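Summary for the funding panel

The consortium committed to producing paired sequence-structure records for every protein in the target list. Below we show the first two records in order, beginning with the earlier of the two.
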Amino acid sequence: MQLNVLSIIIGGIALLIGIVAGKFIFARNTKKIIEEAEIQSQKIIADAKVTSENLKKERLLEAKEKFVQLKAEHDRELLEKNRKIGDQENRIKQKEQSINQKLENLDRQSKENEAIKETLNRQIEVVNQKRTELEKHQEEHIRRLEKISAMSADEAKAQLVESLRQEAQTHALSIQQEIIEEAKLKANKEARKIVIQTIQRTAAEQTIENTVTVFNLESDEIKGQIIGREGRNIRAIEAATGVDLIVDDTPEAIVLSSFDPLRREIARLALQRLVADGRIHPARIEEVVEKTRRQLEEQVLEIGERTVIEMGIHGLHKELVRIVGKMRFRSSYGQNLLMHSREVANLCGIMASELGMNPKLAKRAGLLHDIGKVPDEETELSHALLGAKLAEKYGENPAVVNAIGAHHDEMEMRYVISPIVQACDAISGARPGARREIMQQYLQRIKELETLAMTYPGVEKAYAIQAGRELRVIVEADKVTDNDSEKLSFEIAQKIQTEMTYPGQIKVTVIREKRTVNMAR
């Protein structure tokens, strides 16, 4: 026990000794660190003083250089200002000298003017005296003449004036007649010159239209799909479109025949979609044809918009734009109606420019002059009067309306552009290769065939095919029976035979089809 206590005491003494020794060592190290820190701080302070002195010298040098630079610039500006002031002073002195010289000249001229004025006053007095004397002599002379002629001065004056007036009137009429004759010669010459220049400056395209369209195929195997079992597909296409499909030995091609370009285009696009789709059967054919017909209406509007933009015509009513696009699928005497209207518009613009008129208004009238040829419904009006009515309905300029209605002399020409449109229409239609009279007669016969069939009750559609050698009449099954179909076919054939003139013979085919449709839902 005593040993444990003794060992504890010895341990505590040893611990105290260690603590005291540690404190002594720490105090000595701390003093050394403090001394080193003081030395370092003195060195830093000395370095800072040296650096500050160097910076001070550099700033002083920079300030001196800046001062010298600013002083030099100030001296240059001062010299420039002094030079400008000197120039201004010289100019002012020159102006003063010039003004003084002008003042001297004015003084001298004023003195000369006064002398001239005095001379003129004296001359005026002399003239007045002589005028008085002359008036006295004239009065004396008039009294002597009145005494000799037994007429007063007023009577003699009136007689002389009347004689001079008659002579002047006769001379003026002669000159007027000469001017009129010369103007007529020049007007005819200038008119021919303008027309010739207008024709020469227009590059016309070949516009003769054909009545067939060739539809190309990738292989002859597709012909069988288009014809269908027992020809049902081709009959469905012809019934839906009114176009005659000619499938012959021509490799990889089918001919679409119709006098109506719009029908041919519908048939071509519908065939293209059916061939690409691969599903060709009567129900699908009718669906595609109807869809194509609707999309072609959108295409017509697009063609019209593109045409008016290319022609530089703005503010045209949307319905007139549609009619312009519709002209793309119409022809007149074999000449495409849209190409003809564009050609007339360009001719009108050139001729109006030559005459110093408004070319934009003339081009507008030229483009719209035949819009009456593409009516949405049949009418008794001529195409010129119908076109004028449509243009007036959709807010066109009165000059444009009159030009459309008067281009075939069916209205009185009230504006200058009306004869221009008439002349340009004749130029476009009369040029070599523009039209075919035989083609128009053929198209008229085809149209009359279809119109004749549509006059019978129960007829839904009528299509002239095979170049007018066959008339296919589609009737409504609810209104026409099978017996009525036979009777209708006979009556139409007899009416064609008695009322129309045509080469060869025309086959009349009446088609009656009964359909029952239900939906499985």
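The next record, for a separate protein in the list, is shown here:
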Amino acid sequence: MADPSTYRPKPGQIPDSPGVYKFRDEHRRVIYVGKAKSLRQRLANYFQDLASLHPRTRSMVTTAASVEWTVVTTEVEALQLEYTWIKEFDPRFNVKYRDDKSYPYLAVTLNEEYPRVQVMRGAKKKGVRYFGPYGHAWAIRETVDLMLRVFPVRTCSAGVFKNAARTGRPCLLGYIGKCSAPCVGRVTAEDHRELAEDFCDFMAGRTGAYLRRLEKEMAAAAEEMEYERAARLRDDIEALRRAMEKSAVVLADDTDADLIALAEDELEAAVQIFHVRGGRVRGQRGWVTDKVEAVTTGDLVEHAVQQLYGEESGDAVPKEVLVPALPDPVAPVQAWLAERRGSSVGLRVPQRGDKRALMETVQRNAQHSLVLHKTKRASDLTTRSRALEEIAAALDLDSAPLRIECFDISHLQGDDVVASMVVFEDGLARKSEYRRFQIKGRVGDTQVWHGEGQDDVRSMHEVIARRFRRYIAEKEKTGEWVEETEVPEDSLTEEDGRPKRFAYPPQLVVVDGGKPQVAAAKRAMDELGIDDVAVCGLAKRLEEVWLPDEEDPVVLPRSSEGLYLLQRVRDEAHRFAIAYQRKKRAKRFRAGPLDAVPGLGETRKQALIKHFGSVKKLRSATIEQICEVPGIGRKTAETIAAALAEAAPAAPAVNTATGEIIEEEAPVTAEAAQAPAGAVERRGQDT
């Protein structure tokens, strides 16, 4: 007997949204399928004290070895998917909760003279139109009751129909307007069949045209002041809208397709596949994969298709494969799929309709799968401890690095150079201690201003030196470094009692880059006498770990939790640096040749552009016209004119937010920044 606490999900892992859940035993067989309006609340009921559970429920949770769930959009989707999977997996603990071994369908007997709407089970009959299956017969009757208001089709049995025809009196439904009463000749057989066909079309999903027709009739009745008729039509429309709350997991009956969705970040990608056969979701698969190299969404789709259908053929490959992005090129993949199936296969991105809605559901499941995967790795204390131990072993540290600081450099072709410092403690990000640096070009004690050729290695040297100078300054205020609980009270923050600012030293410094960046960081620390902090670099291209004074890198296995933690730290530093660099660049105003005018600040450059409208018009202006601009004296105007005359025609201004070229004659604003031709945002490159 299994203990449910061994597989109970951790708090916060279960989403608070509609969905379907499956309990599996130790052999991975599905033993129970259920649905819930809130997965979090429903699943919590199964992990109570065993003594308080129903005997059958207690037997189920002690037989199970794992639980999994699928997120959907509405309860209707959950209802449809639950019973689809009950029929598919035939779970042993679901049997007693069904009133029959067959599923009920909504059937329209188009093979009769007067078609009838009814609940049917068992084998399907020729000439009968089926909709479903449904979970319960009462669910069908609820739907039919709403629909009969608009489509008064016969629902009575053959005996009741014959008796009404014999007596000339309709049944109760005929009197209250929920049956057109063909039994007493109120409508002809042809009119009644047309009603039945309209009912079938509406149930099949062709709802838009019919609703629009009713809305036009309602508007016309209101204009003619037939308010009672308009009110009836309004109620009919509302009834149909309630009835047509159809599930996104139900498509047209002839739909055979696989839907593949992806959720990804810089390190990993989660893949989710829904298998739709006969318009129903018949199965689901999913996995999380490491992104070993830089791949696009189209590349990930291609890999997923290969893994799915590599050993499949025939009907196992569906007519249609719906994906979030197409591989490039797409023709070879389509040809390969067609070869495996033996006929053409459509590979496309759904743009609208039910297939797009179902793709969004699959996408939500992929996103949740990725979040759950990362939550398990990041929040699991055992996993974090193992990651820190692996890092300590790989870098030959005396103890696990409980505080890790990572530095990254970001710039745009040497301009707007910034750096970031992120802090991870016990394997978790500590965002309150993140820091941002604006690189000043300081090397040692000498001020060196760099232009477009700003050196990433020098920048790394500068930021490491500045960080540890602050550490030394803070430490001198409190004396030699002691345990946190022994730090003098006046050097602690008010919020949590931790040392102020940079006074808390890391056990490991990680720099984004290879051997040169690591050497620069180590040199900066040596110059300041810091010899008790380890340093390493993580080169993005091959994910190699570089150590100071080592000719060869340390290569951690791709499955290593230590490498995963270092990647998270490095990517967080990159994200933080890029965000700061973009923010800083967006605030800058650049006006081409005006940037070269000595002593001309941002305010006066903006005033010039605002006054003349463009650099081209400013270049053709006279000195007297330039002097008309507030804040511009004659000497400055002469300097501006000389600089513009000597300068070559400026490159077109570029909006950094959108990348669009601003026409020369268009006014240049502070939001439009000019970048060098071919400029691209980039980070410090590994050497």
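Regarding this second record: The first strand starts at residue 19 and ends at 24. The radius of gyration is 35 Å.
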